[in-house]
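pinned: reference chain
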Amino acid sequence: MPKRPLSPGRVRAARQSARVTIASAAGFYPALYWLDRPIVAIYALFAAISLGVLSPVPGGGRERARTVLFALPVAMALTGLGTALAVTTGSAVAGTLVVGFTVSFAAAYGPAPASVVPGLLLFYVLACFPPYAPDALPQRLLGVLAGGVLLVVCELLVLPAPPSQPYRARVAAALDLAAAAALAAAQGHRHDLEAARDLRRAGLALRLSQAPPASRPTGAGRTARGLAQAGAATRRVLDQLARMAERPESAPVGDPPSEALLRGVAAGCAATAGALRGARAVPGPEALEEMAADFIAVRGRPSGTRADMDGRPSPRLLSHRSGVLAAAASAMTAQAAVAVAIGGRRTAPGLPHDQFWYAEPPVRRLLALRLTGNLTLRSVLFQNAVRTALGLGAARLVAGALDLSHGFWVLLAVLTLGRTTAGATWSTVRSAALGTLVGSLAAGVLLFEAGGAVDVYAVVLVPAMFVAFSVGPIAGPAWAQGLFTLVVAAAFSQLAPPDWRLAEARLLDVLTGCAIGLVCGVLAWPAGARGEVRRSVADLLRAVAPLVRLTVVAAVGAPGDPGTRRVAAEEALRLTRHRLRIAEAAYAQYRTEGGRHPVEGGPDWHVALNCASHAVVGSHWLPRQEYGPAPPDAVRWARDAVGQLTASMDRAAALPSGAVRPRPAPLPPEVVSTSPAPVLPMLVDIDGWLQTLAADLTAIAGDGNVPDGRPPVADGGSETDDGSESGDGAEPGGRQGSGTASRAG
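pinned: its structure tokens
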């Protein structure tokens, strides 16, 4: 039988294990045997392990090396701080609480900072334990520097990881496909189900969960925010064009304004794709915006076909034109976002200013906003930082009070085995305890049989490291803890006379750390993000309901004080944006959790985020159109329809995982026939917006049903289920409707 090829995950783990093993051995052996500096040796060993194994640094060889290089100064500073605070147990515990929270909370800056958090914490943990030895600080810093530099060299030269595909390349490829589809639609080639499937597949590829962690634009800077928004807007363009290809009956033939605008969309998408590849200058959305403005001016006019009624455009034609305009607006948003991300532009003329709010502030302001936006008990990042700090502080207190000989292993167990839910922590702790027990028995046998033969431990260390670092990440916590026990036994037996009680101490310390981690998991937000995502989605829906109602009332020109209504709408928009950011963070953490409550199945929280995104997008555009006041019967219909929808939102907020099926009244034919021609486009937009929001609200239950037998609306949103975040106020994507309300992109 032919041998099965190794999986890519195993190959990556073996390559990383080789790099870390070489870096660790190159720092440990010369320092110990040539220089006779055991302190330098142990810190060089743990520096390579902490930044190479404990820290899952993403990206290719150059990206990993750059991240490790930037983390080295912080690692040395934490080593110095830990050395200074080790003077007493009280100072060490206080420092552990502060450092644990501060370093863990830095994960808000993006995937690269988040990846090195565990490794950086280990530097402080290793240095803050007795004995208090400030004189040893130069040797400790030398060991950290040597281990880090050796790891950087190995990342660059020893089986370097291949570079990950940049996210901008994915967006460029999707824009090329959108340009071809828009041009085909302009030429009359509209009914093509295979092309529609290709468009949707390209949209799915823009989900951040489909991109390598290193290339996900989830940072707090202007470039990352702009690329994330460009990806979301591009996905909406693809979904709009896919719907045109799937529904030929909704695309009247012989409509010159629509065809001209589709050609403009094709040209704009192609130009933006070229800019992302560096082949041409970054275009602005001005040309496409001018075409869209001309299109809006003629959108309410008849096309001259039989579909028109008494010199008025038919609802079918208006619906088609509204979809074309939606695709154009999303293309404009993509162009503007790319111009901000890589072109250095600080404005986006013609588009809502608050959509590109991140274009003007300096980078330091954007970083500060990312942190302050998560300084709340409702932020999962904040909860995780608090949980980590409390666990490490408790472990340091127990280790110091009991005077454990290798107390840092207690903190290491808390650091590596803690999870965000009590169920996941218990599952991990059980496996780790079993693995440590078996590993301790094996280490005890090794120490008993080898006795004082240091050469045996020197020979065993390298293969033990390679096996532990290649098998542990793949096989799970039991194998990882068991094999790592052999590694530490072989290493520490070369630093001091070997004693079989070293394995016993390792077992007791790991079990102590497991117990502390389990207690923290039970007491500090035991449900993890699962409970938080329910609460945050409920609050989000409660904020969305008044925003939708105020938007529709303003659009149709219902009686009331415009000034008071505008202030209320601005406050509703601010509250919705704030709660959307919190819900996105909770959902991102929820998608990474395992344990007893798997992330698959159950309520579709991503649809809830899309529903809120549509509400925000519609609030930008609907009240801004100059259509004139709607007739009384149209105002009554709009009030009734939005009242039915917002009532359903309130019910869904009371039970966000329950099945709520809103059925807002569709636009009545008699209202269409009696409304003035200039008002009809706005009424069609409102109808499409409300029906799309209703479909999103229905789909939260996870059963895929939508009201009135409508097919599910395609997902056109940015993906936040893998640690991504749209940013403080940046527009995430959403399911796209067929109206102007869906055009903000």
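why pinned: Residues 593-600, 703-745 have pLDDT under 50 and may be disordered. The two ends are 54 Å apart (CA to CA).
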